[in-house]
């Protein structure tokens, strides 16, 4: 479908290209006599105009070198700043719900997981620098659904991503690109309000700080708030961000910055489910918690980047990023499944305090080299990630640590328990983990239209879990885990059929440790290993204004954790489980004709365990939350002529059946589709007013058969710039 749209768009726009540029070659005619580009693959940057750069920008999520999607032999997509504004995305979760091939799982009221091709996405980067992701998700609410106020765009790679980003987990990688200081002064303000308590305000100011423009800065202040799905609940998100960059010399750039994010919520973590596996027939807004619920997540991020031109076309980059997060969780939520006949069940209390410090370092160099009379490209680098986490869990009466109490679902009465903080009611533990590796990649120009990409990484991993000898109510024991240097490889081939079409194939290996799972001999079970095979075709039309892609893939996993059948305690594991996923993705992105934009994708995915005893130890259940079919579409049209300030938009997310098991029961969500719409009017080039409606027809559903979808919301947003 998208391929045909692209062909139609190219034909329809041919006369417009001639009219706007004087010839069908557009800007490429002005560079016809320029030297050959360093990259042997089709380099379309010198032909791309501002529209193409805005709608289909080069990415670094699959490469340290900014490249168009057509040059990368894997599936990549971008949620651009234009799309963020047009669809009024507030958080990463909002954007990922429209990312091609991605399933969003609301693990609880505060925390989110993302899946692609049936597997969790566990690689998260900021400005191309990978960050350690804590598998416990203890303080990571803002890691997985941060405010987008400080980010310019979201880049997504689906499929294994371990070459540059750490371990090759199969789901993919997400790269958040920060807003950087501008060379010209710019200022903007956004004010919004709407139904269900939605409100927000953002101020974004930046530009040169000295007459020469060699020192630049940017600052962002943002606040958003909204009522939760359940009655009397709400969320609040506050963001502060500042960055400075300086041209130390004509070849040296220094960038430093800091951000602070505070997110609060009073929703209970778990939604109600009955013993028959259903969610019952209570109103969507029914509250399943206590009035004293309160969760707070605070994150401070300090970063510094040094960019250095080395000569001969080579550049080097060094990044240091430190993230300190704190969270407190005080709430009551469902303890087990409730009886649908009596509307009664158990509720329990949670009182946790967690702090986490993460240090991320990445050093790399990229540039061209000559071999056999042809110019090629190389990347070499190393990265280091360290995490230190401290957790304290407080419990109530030693005879009823979790405060389990049977309540009436229609009238939950559950006073806040007393948490003595004594050794017999408290658990404290620390986790220390580090991961480091060296990597390299080269793009070899075999022929003018043919590029071979080869890469490899050697990774090391160490983890230590330590318990407090006094505050250890469950008698846990510590352990130390680690893996010696492990090689993961990558190979890709891109062939340019012509100026529009490229075909590609790639191979990526997978390596993923399974933390805290021990064999009967007391050793860590071996990591999950595997590989992905992907092939496809990509197209660019109108010099990159509209792009299409079709990919087919298969991912194989082995050595997944299984309970050791010879262990009578059923508490030790062996790594023999297998899994496989197959599917294809079709997408189209950009401007079809002047004023008409389209962002669409269809994904078919078939994920399955190849043995019934294989466990899900990395994240949530492997295949049950991954629908076979995902269709996502957003399109908008700016009216011509006298009504050129008016833009109309509409979108749909359609998902086939999913199921999940909770409390020993299985719940199923059938096919559903959610419709969104928008209308905006630009009074001037700098000022606009937009009205966005999400879930326009108020569809009641459970995303991934787990968390109840948000009801209809309507937001009015005023944007102005200077």
Automatic annotation (TrEMBL):
CDD domains to which the protein is assigned, alphabetical: ligand_gated_channel
Q: Where in the cell is it found?
A: Cell outer membrane
The keyword Membrane is annotated on this UniProt entry: yes
Keyword GTP-binding among UniProt keywords: no
Query: What's one GO MF term for it?
Result: siderophore uptake transmembrane transporter activity
Q: Which Pfam families match?
A: Plug, TonB_dep_Rec_b-barrel
Write down any Gene Ontology CC term: cell outer membrane
- The record places domain TonB-dependent receptor plug at 69-173
Q: Primary place of residence? A: membrane
Q: What is the membrane topology noted in the UniProt record heading this document?
A: Multi-pass membrane protein
Q: Which UniProt keywords apply?
A: Cell outer membrane, Membrane, Receptor, TonB box, Transmembrane, Transmembrane beta strand, Transport
Q: Which InterPro entries match?
A: Beta-barrel_TonB, Beta-barrel_TonB_sf, Plug_dom, Plug_dom_sf, TonB-dep_rcpt-like, TonB_sidphr_rcpt
Show the segment(s) annotated as Disordered: 20-43
* PROSITE patterns noted in UniProt: TONB_DEPENDENT_REC_3
- SUPFAM superfamilies assigned to the protein according to its UniProt record, in alphabetical order: Porins
Residue stretches making up the TonB-dependent receptor-like beta-barrel domain: 249-696
What GO terms describe the biological role, i.e. biological process, of this protein?
siderophore transport
UniProt lists the family membership as follows: Belongs to the TonB-dependent receptor family.
This protein's name? Fe(3+)-pyochelin receptor
Please give the organism.
Answer: Pandoraea horticolens
């Amino acid at each position: 479908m998208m391929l045909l749209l692209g062909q139609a768009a190219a034909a329809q726009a041919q006369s417009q290209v001639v009219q706007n540029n004087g010839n069908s070659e557009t800007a490429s005619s002005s560079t016809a006599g320029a030297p050959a580009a360093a990259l042997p693959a089709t380099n379309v940057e010198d032909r791309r105009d501002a529209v193409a750069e805005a709608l289909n920008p080069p990415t670094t999520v699959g490469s340290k070198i900014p490249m168009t999607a057509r040059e990368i032999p894997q599936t990549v997509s971008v949620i651009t700043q234009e799309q963020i504004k047009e669809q009024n995305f507030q958080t990463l979760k909002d954007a990922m719900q429209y990312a091609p091939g991605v399933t969003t799982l609301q693990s609880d009221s505060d925390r989110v997981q993302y899946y692609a091709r049936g597997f969790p996405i566990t690689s998260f980067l900021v400005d191309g620098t990978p960050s350690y992701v804590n598998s416990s998700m203890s303080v990571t609410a803002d890691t997985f659904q941060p405010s987008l106020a400080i980010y310019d765009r979201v880049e997504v790679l689906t499929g294994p991503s371990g070459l540059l980003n750490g371990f090759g987990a199969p789901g993919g990688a997400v790269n958040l690109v920060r807003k950087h200081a501008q060379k010209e002064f710019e200022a903007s303000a956004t004010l919004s309000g709407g139904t269900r308590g939605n409100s927000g305000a953002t101020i974004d100011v930046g530009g040169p700080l000295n007459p020469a423009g060699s020192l630049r800065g940017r600052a962002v202040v943002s606040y958003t708030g909204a009522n939760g799905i359940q009655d009397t609940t709400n969320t609040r998100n506050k963001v502060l961000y500042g960055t400075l960059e300086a041209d130390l010399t004509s070849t040296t750039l220094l960038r430093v910055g800091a951000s602070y994010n505070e997110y609060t919520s009073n929703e209970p973590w778990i939604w109600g489910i009955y013993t028959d596996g259903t969610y019952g027939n209570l109103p969507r807004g029914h509250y399943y918690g206590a009035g004293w619920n309160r969760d707070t997540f605070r994150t401070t991020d300090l970063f510094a980047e040094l960019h250095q031109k080395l000569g001969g076309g080579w550049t080097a980059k060094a990044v240091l990023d430190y993230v300190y997060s704190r969270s407190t969780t005080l709430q009551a939520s469902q303890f087990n499944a409730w009886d649908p006949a009596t509307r009664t069940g158990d509720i329990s209390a949670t009182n946790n305090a967690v702090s986490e410090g993460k240090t991320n370092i990445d050093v790399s160099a990229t540039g061209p080299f000559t071999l056999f009379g042809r110019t090629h490209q190389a990347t070499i680098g190393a990265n280091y990630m360290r995490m230190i986490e401290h957790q304290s869990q407080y419990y109530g009466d030693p005879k009823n640590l979790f405060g389990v109490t049977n309540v009436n679902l229609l009238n939950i009465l559950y006073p806040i328990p007393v948490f003595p903080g004594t050794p017999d009611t408290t658990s404290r533990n620390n986790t220390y983990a580090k991961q480091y590796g060296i990597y390299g990649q080269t793009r070899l120009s075999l022929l003018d239209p043919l590029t071979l990409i080869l890469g490899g990484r050697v990774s090391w991993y160490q983890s230590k879990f330590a318990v407090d000898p006094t505050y250890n109510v469950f008698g846990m024991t510590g352990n130390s885990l680690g893996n010696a240097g492990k090689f993961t490889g990558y190979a890709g081939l891109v062939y340019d059929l012509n100026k529009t079409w490229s075909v590609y194939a790639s191979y990526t290996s997978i390596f993923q440790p399974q933390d805290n799972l021990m064999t009967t001999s007391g050793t860590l079970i071996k990591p999950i290993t595997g590989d992905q095979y992907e092939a496809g075709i990509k197209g660019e039309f109108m010099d990159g204004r509209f792009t299409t892609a079709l990919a087919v893939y298969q991912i194989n996993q082995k050595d997944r954790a299984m309970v050791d059948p010879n262990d009578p305690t059923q508490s030790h594991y062996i790594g023999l489980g297998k899994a496989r996923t197959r599917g294809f993705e079709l997408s189209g992105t950009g401007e079809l004709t002047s004023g008409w934009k389209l962002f669409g994708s269809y994904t078919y995915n078939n994920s399955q365990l190849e043995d019934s005893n294989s466990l899900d130890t990395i994240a949530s259940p492997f295949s049950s939350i991954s629908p076979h079919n995902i269709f996502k579409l957003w399109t908008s049209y700016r009216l011509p002529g006298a009504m050129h300030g008016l833009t109309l938009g509409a979108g749909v997310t359609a998902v086939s059946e999913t199921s999940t098991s909770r409390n020993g029961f299985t719940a199923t969500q059938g096919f559903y589709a959610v419709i969104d719409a928008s209308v905006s009017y630009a009074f001037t080039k700098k000022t606009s007013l937009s009205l966005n409606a999400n879930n326009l027809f108020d569809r009641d559903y459970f995303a991934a058969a787990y968390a109840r979808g948000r009801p209809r919301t309507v937001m009015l947003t005023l944007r102005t710039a200077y």
